[in-house]
Design brief:
Elements lengths: L3 E8 L3 H13 L3 E8 L2 H9 L5 E5 L8 H10 L6 E5 L4 H10 L3 E4 L5 H26 L9 H18 L3 E8 L2 H8 L1 H18 L5 E6 L2 E6 L5 H15 L3 E3 L2 E3 L3 E8 L6 H17 L5 E3 L2 H20 L5 E10 L5 E10 L8 H11 L2 H21 L6 E5 L2 H5 L3 H12 L6 E5 L1 H4 L3 H13 L3 E7 L5 H7 L4 E4 L1 H5 L5 H16 L3 E4 L5 H9 L4 E2 L10 H11 L6
Parallel strand pairs: 1-2, 1-3, 3-4, 4-5, 11-12, 14-15, 15-16, 16-17, 17-18, 18-19, 19-20
Antiparallel strand pairs: 6-8, 6-11, 7-8, 9-10, 13-14, 13-20
Helix pairs in contact: 2-3, 3-4, 7-8, 8-9, 11-12, 13-15, 15-17
The protein binds ligand C2E and magnesium ion.
The site of ligand C2E has 20 residues, from strand 14, helix 12 and helix 13.
Amino acid sequence: MNLERYRVLLVDDDEDDYLITADLLSEIDGTRFDLDWVASYAEGLEAITRREHDVYLLDYRLGGKHTGLELLREAIRSGCREPIILLTGLRDREIDMEAMSTGAADYLVKGQINAPLLERSIRYSLRANQNEKKLAQMAEFDGLTGLPNRHLFQDRFAQQLALARRQKGVVGLMFLDLDRFKLINDTLGHSAGDKLLTIVSERLQQSVRESDTVARLGGDEFVVILPDINAPQNIILIARRIIKKIRQPVQFDIQEIFPAASIGISLFPHDGSDTETLLRKADMAMYQAKASSAKKYAFASDSLNKQVSERFNLEGKLHRALERKEFIIDYQPQFDLRSGDLVGGEALLRWKPAEHVIAPGTFIPLLEETGLIVPVGSWVIQTVCQQYLAWQKKGFGALRLAVNLSGRQLAENDIVDLVEQIMLDTEMPEKMLELELTESMVIGNVQHVREILHGIRSLGICLAMDYFGTGYSSLNCLKHFPFDRIKIDRSFVANIGINQNDEAIIRGIIAIAHDMGMEVVAEGVEEEKQVAFLKDCDCDLLQGFLLGRPMSVKNFTDIMQTKCQVDGP
Ligand code: C2E
Ligand code: MG
């Protein structure tokens, strides 16, 4: 027979009471009660916080300075939702009343307790508790989708706003509505409509982070609370992910439909400071989104909408930039600190659509977000290798050329094959190509990245770690990954002569790198005093505006002519 089983905790300072209670519980037929016992207020509170029991029995008299009633109060305050029964004495009538009004499920008078009474009290408390939980669920969750309903949404949103107010944070609110939902309901029937709503609610939940709340306000209206928004771009990414996910087909008997959603977005504190205002503005923005055929999402704030459309515009142009040959590569020289020779160059991507030049800080993140960095990044490697060969043909000595890689390229399965193919096609001598990576690209999936980096290394290509010292585990990265060179971030170099700590860090980085057999490049060298300090620390290579800004192929060729020996004719 399958026995019902409950875990019971008794908080009582008297061991005899524990033994009696254990005896009484063992007399009860058909149910197994596993009794645990702790003797003090502190242990009781600790055990209750662990939430391991189905029901709690608290003795009013706990020996020390605290009573069972205080423990009951504290347990409820800390969020305990399981039933608590207080055990009191014969003359504690007032305490019984107070216990009930504080939230005890029941009270039992010690000395009068027998097995049937104890059983009845526990069973009754458990049943009442289950009903309460069911009612709370019904009051707060949507029956169809299981999502929080409007009531719980308002509660959670108010909590997030209060938190953001204290922490000066930004909270995003998305208002989402399905396009042509009424038509689906009218033509395919209500059960099809219900199925669609359930599927949409699942897709919504899959598209957001665990800390975000998805709720159904009613009908085909959903909201998403997005706490901790660092930048509006992050919301755009989430909105796009949701729109894309919802757009996947849904099969109804013989008919396949492609659901679509429109999203309006408001932000606390930019668009308002209370639930009602933010909800209304997100709702209004949603109508604007419905009207725009392209994006399907809109912000409540005009300035954000403007930013988004500019981005959208730029993104459209970026998609065509490669075929329109709008990308070019500048090179920034790198010098050997000891000999003063020009020994290499860093390739830096530039985008020059007809009208103007767009800063790398604007278009490179966009290339990364759209995934275009993968083809464009391959083009950069290929172009740099071809450029190397062109310089070789003109008779210039060997210069190592560095290319920045992006995390997206590293995540592509075939990056090693791709680089190998480019090297073969262009006949690039392997030692002359260097790939620059950042710490954020390599931490995370250590094993996978290590395989890729060893793969690249086995082709003979050099690896450099960019922005060294700015991350949280720069040193750890050196331990795990095979770098040939590290580039000290320019924020440290800028502080030479200003901040002794930064100077000590530079000295330390150089010593560690040399011990591990790596070379060090100092980035962002702008002043003579920096060169002197770096020389004193035995740094290997320098790069920075003082020695040469990023420049066109033509200008770089000119400085090659003066700064490095010419082998050629
Ligand atoms: P980065 O890898 O740190 O590249 C060096 C950046 O520092 C360049 O900015 C350069 O102009 C700047 N710089 C060099 N010397 C100095 C100096 O003395 N003082 C100051 N203040 N700045 C200096 P740029 O060209 O704007 O490039 C920005 C970033 O864009 C690069 O930073 C790199 O992370 C990324 N990037 C550039 N080209 C590519 C590419 O082909 N692929 C990828 N994935 N990223 C690229
Ligand atoms: Mg770099």
